[in-house]
Amino acid sequence: xxxxxxxxxxxxxxxxxxxxxxxxxxxGIVVIQEWWGLVPQIEGVADRFAxxxxxxxxxxxxxxxxxxxxxxAHHLMDGLDWSRAAAExxxxxxxxxxxxxxGSVGVVGFCMGGALTLIAAADPAxxxxxxxxxxxxxxxxxxxxxxxxGLLLFGEHEHAFSVPDAQAWAAAQRAKGLEAEVRIYPGAxxxxxxxxxxxxxxxxxxxxxxxxxxxxxxxxxxx
Length: 223
Fold this sequence. Notes:
Elements: E1 2-9, E2 12-19, E3 27-32, H1 40-51, E4 55-59, H2 70-78, H3 82-98, E5 104-110, H4 112-121, E6 128-132, E7 150-157, H5 163-175, E8 180-189, H6 203-221
């Protein structure tokens, strides 16, 4: 369903996987990778959004590198230039709006990509966001500039990111009259949405999280 594409950012050329729906689309979604890289599972998420009528773009933040080994994934994530990644995500949002011609853009990301989702959501060109089990340290993101509505999803046994920090931030957003919900799934662990890793995949949580993601994007991207 998808293809490799190149797009521009303030930090130079970038690339990714683009999936288009069968009919012309009026909304797009940027899909942000986990620490594994732009792997088939992430491309599959983009395909799922395309099947729902969105133009979906998954940027390749590791520029051609990916892995299935946790140690190597940790190494790749440690080597990520987060400021360049933020610029490339902004470029992906701009590409969907200017080249693909969509009127609204959502951002969704997983793990490392969940934290990057909040960084990307500070861009006023982002219409809505969903962050799966990721939240950035306050000093690394312009969290106070986010006005888009969003959803943050965690498993009960989250170990990689601070759920209390995410909850406190979401409460502050709601106090400002902005939509920000944190959903915690009982029995689920970090990575519960990734169906390719049997040890962590939690089907009922993944199903509910997908339904909530689709509902939020449908409400805010399509009106």
